[in-house]
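We now fix the convention by which a protein and its fold are recorded. The integers have meaning only within a learned vocabulary of local backbone shapes. The record below shows the convention in full.
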Amino acid sequence: AVSRWPILLAGPLRGPNGESVALHHARSLGEVSAGAVRELMASAAIFVSSAVYEPFGLAVLEAAATGAALVLSDIPTFRELWHDAALFAPPDDARAFTAAIERLTDDAALRHSLGARARDRAREFPFQRQVDQVQHVYEIARQHAAAPVG
């Protein structure tokens, strides 16, 4: 199945261990600057993440903050954070992702509703809170690293 809307992917298509992905119905933008990604997200009506594993999902949070409707992998992290603010698909099911994208393409009311819910949810994770929590974790790790062993 092919989406009627353009699908753009940012980032490398080859991983550090030589694994790669071939695109058939999407356009790769390659590696782009953080500013360019923010501009793309700001203009996107739909944001998709097919992550197999994601401890939090900063890119999803950034897209949600712009009001993009979310189509996410059906993995525990995304379900917990975005349960009522996204559509979900199994991470290895391209047809399910396409169907979810097409559903949002065809249903402007649902697209706008999910985008608004995603934006509201993103407000629960303000940037400064994220910075403070990361700094707290680093401080704990630093204290443990400096503690004498034995």
